[in-house]
Write a structure and sequence with these properties.
Layout (H helix, E strand, L loop, with lengths): L2 H17 L4 H15 L4 H5 L2 H5 L4 H8 L5 H7 L19 E5 L8 E5 L1 H17 L13 E5 L6 E2 L4 E3 L1 H6 L10 E2 L2 H4 L4 H11 L5 E6 L1 H14 L14 E5 L7 H5 L7 E8 L2 E5 L8 E3 L5 E7 L28 E8 L6 E11 L4 E7 L13 H15 L5 E9 L2 E9 L6 H15 L1 H7 L3 E9 L1 H10 L15 H14 L1
Helix pairs in contact: 10-11, 13-14, 14-15
Length: 507
């Protein structure tokens, strides 16, 4: 038995048993109190009476009643822009050391989200907690001696006057602890390469020299990288070159739509662990193998609030109505859909991150992401979240025994009414009419609002089948290839028109 692996595994097991069960509700109260105390003398803290909030009998409720909601545009326009004008102590003490450039799913890179040294420490500690949680998974001792291939954004950050800029995965990778560097692949030199294709080319060259035990990254780009390694080395599957590959840490998007195509690249099943790392912080990770839900990080620099998801409370731009009521962790219920609101050690306050979540276990504070506020398809009352769309797609893959790693859709108006118009990315032979009927039937069974909409203004489903490369080309055209890039699952009609023009040019 490998000595180093045994020591690490033993340390993880012992530490995990010592930490025991936590009290997420109590932890969240302490986190909010700490955030308010740290930011009490900032410009934001003075403007929003943090001193009075701290002296109130119910800090959580007073905080919610005193501080308004912010999305990126509103907090950036009123507060964060001051950081770029040389002001200090704006929404958090001092100045941020980094800004995370968010390329997300909304088009060009436009958001510059502050990342403080406190947030770097919080992300690092959340990562350690996730490692400790591996004691709940049955990995062999020698797994803890293998390399971890993290395929994120470039670590060659952009130097500005008083800070560095880059995507959050690049910022995080550039701040990995020294003890982890021996395990980290592709290594600092390759990780700095900005061009994604060039970086993958170097990974392909080095692949035979590495003993990889774990992968980490967004599913679509991990798949493309694995395909390049398999193709270049004439392999049947990735385990022929990395026989000790045991785990894949997924993040950024739901893994479900990629499950079938991802597994086709494996020589045997591996463990998939979900994580929730956003530009605004490390929010949650899967802590145990009995579920694919993720545990909120409730004791580490982020305070959470939850607004019951009501389509009437969501504005066209994805923001919340100002009178929408928020709930604390002690007030949420299992199985309900909530808009996630966060306040953080980077100076985000009651910030609409843009995701909707659902609790699968309230006591453990375990959640799953159900969609995006901007990607909620509610045209003519169909009320479909991304997880419902993902579920329908997975059912289609099972029914027709095909792999469909990418898709997007729009509630598009035709002469005879609205149709949910899907584009499916697959290399398989798939009949569009049969696929449309399967998706329609699946959504009728899964969502009563959709079924009602189908009896009224929603006329049906249209399906167009294209190659997955069309989706990757779309992302590349929008300067979004690799890294934290996620394909838009739902588009508005204006964006969808651009998409269809792009698709036409590929034919």
């Amino acid at each position: 038995m490998p000595i180093i692996g045994s020591v690490i595994k033993g340390l993880i097991d012992v530490t995990g048993s010592i930490t025991g069960d936590s009290d997420p509700i109590a932890e969240q109260k302490e986190v909010l109190k700490s955030l308010l105390e740290r930011a009490e003398e900032t410009q934001f803290g003075i403007a929003h009476n943090f001193s009075e909030i701290l002296s109130s009998e119910n800090i959580q409720r007073t905080f919610a009643e005193t501080v308004p909601y912010f999305d990126y545009d509103s907090i950036n326009t009123k507060w964060w822009k001051k950081l770029h004008e040389g002001e200090e102590n704006v929404t958090w003490p001092g100045n941020p050391d980094y800004f995370a450039l968010s390329s997300g799913t909304t088009g060009k890179t436009s958001k510059r989200i502050p990342v403080t040294e406190d947030m770097i420490k919080a992300i690092r500690w959340a990562g350690i907690k996730q490692v400790l949680a591996l004691s709940n998974f049955d990995f062999p001792s020698d797994f803890f001696e293998k390399g971890i291939l993290m395929l994120g954004s470039s670590t060659d950050l952009i130097k500005q006057e008083d800070h560095l800029e880059g995507e959050i995965s690049g910022i995080s990778a550039s701040n990995i602890p020294s003890w982890f560097r021996g395990y980290y692949k592709p290594g600092e030199e390759i990780a700095k390469i900005d061009d994604w294709d060039e970086r993958v080319e170097k990974i392909v060259e080095e692949a035979p020299n590495w003993d990889i035990g774990g992968l980490s990254g967004i599913p679509s780009w991990i798949e493309l990288m694995l395909k390049e390694v398999i193709k270049a080395h004439n392999l049947k599957n990735i385990h022929e070159i990395w026989p000790n590959l045991e785990v894949y840490t997924s993040g950024g998007v739901a893994f479900g739509p990629y499950e079938k195509s991802f597994n086709a690249l494996m020589g045997r099943p591996i463990t998939v662990i979900d994580t929730y790392l956003a530009s605004e912080g490390f929010i949650a990770f899967q802590a145990r193998p009995e579920t694919d839900a993720m545990k909120l990080v409730t004791d580490n620099g982020i305070y959470f609030e939850f607004v019951p998801f009501d389509p009437d409370q969501i504005q066209e731009d994805g923001s919340l109505s100002l009178d929408a009521k928020s709930l604390t962790l002690s007030e949420v219920e299992k199985g309900q859909n909530y808009v996630l609101i966060i306040s953080t050690v980077s100076g985000a306050w009651r910030y609409l991150i843009g995701d909707t979540i659902e609790f699968t276990d309230v006591e453990r504070a375990e959640i799953k992401i159900t969609g995006r506020t901007k990607f909620f398809l509610n045209t003519v009352g169909s009320q479909l979240s991304v997880n419902k769309l993902d579920d329908a797609l997975q059912e289609l893959e099972h029914t027709f025994d095909v792999e469909v790693p990418e898709y997007t859709l729009c509630a598009k108006k035709y002469e005879d009414g609205f149709y949910h118009t899907w584009y499916l990315g697959t290399n398989a032979q798939l009949d569009s009419n049969e696929a449309a009927k399967a998706l329609d039937d699946s959504l009728k069974k899964a969502n009563k609002n959709y079924k009602v909409a189908r009896s009224k203004a929603l006329q049906g489903v249209k399906v167009f089948v294209v190659k997955p490369d069309v989706f990757y080309g779309w992302n590349d055209q929008n300067k979004k290839k690799g890294g934290q890039v996620k394909m838009e699952r739902v588009m508005d009609e204006e964006k969808f028109s651009e998409w269809e023009d792009f698709v036409d040019k590929q034919n």
